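Q: Protein A?
A:
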Amino acid sequence: MIKLFVFCFNFLVFQKDTSAVTYKEYLGVINGYKQLLVDIREYKLTPVQARERFQEMMLVMKKAFPATRYDSTKVHLCFPLMGFDFRAVGGYGSGYIPRGYDLFDQAKKGSHPAHDIFMKDKNQDSRDDRTGDYVSVLSTTNGVVIATENGWQTGSEYRGGNYIWIYDTTNGGLWYYAHQREIYVKAGQVVRAGQKIALVGRTGFNAAMPRSDTHLHMTYLRIDEEGNPFPVNTYGWLKQATTLLDPRIAIDLEPITMLRKAEIQQKSKPMPDIKAPKTAFRRIEPIADEEPVKSRRRRRG
């Protein structure tokens, strides 16, 4: 009964025509995507079998949300860490390595089709050194959660740790957030851009190592008309993303410090087609000719 209610609520919120997809098909994605990931990880499926199952699921989501449109020039994001902007992205975007990536074949190694977004955490307790608090992970866009993992244990060999997969109902495609400390959403849940979905953590085999700095690992996969996934370099989008301010962190950023003198609540504007959250959004303009950080280690997720 609860799952039926969630399904109906999802479509009422997004005002979609449900005639193109059945409840059983939609629920099959919500309940089956995580199992697909497990089967791939444990080599229970061949890459061909895994791709076919993935394609079937993604075509269901495309039918469920037919109004989604992918246009790389019109993607507007909320920056995924509260109070941060693109300067927290590792290597200023150079960490994105899509070559050799294959979601369906765990034997292939060496790719990193993602960006790692770092926070200041010298003692590696997952708390921001500037505030003493954990950092909120925000959904970059509107979407539906299709899989989560919240039970990673220290010593586990699985690299993603606690993770979230969200189907983007604005642009289509999938967002993958990894290494969370805690997760606040569940499969089937509707999320909005800027909504808190997790806390940055150090879960995952490599992310938990002392050599790794505390970070969020984030991937975006565009889904083509046949349901195939293709990684996309989101650095350009992140440079233009809207930052949700945390005033305790804002003092340590430029040009956010200039904005603190303004009346943020009165002059703020919500993102297009998104209900404005209680905390105001502020647009953070890129800084030209900024000197790169010289002493920050970058590790893959």
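Q: Protein B?
A:
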Amino acid sequence: MADHNAEHKHGSMNIRDHEKTFAGFVRMSVWVAAISIGVLIFAALVNS
């Protein structure tokens, strides 16, 4: 279990890994959105 008696100083945590993970998530989301839009446009052009 966590040690509840430990002193925590606000703003002292290293968040570099969190920032890299979030940047990867945003990058992947943009790619998925772009590919989805591309597929929809392709499907609309082929179907017409």
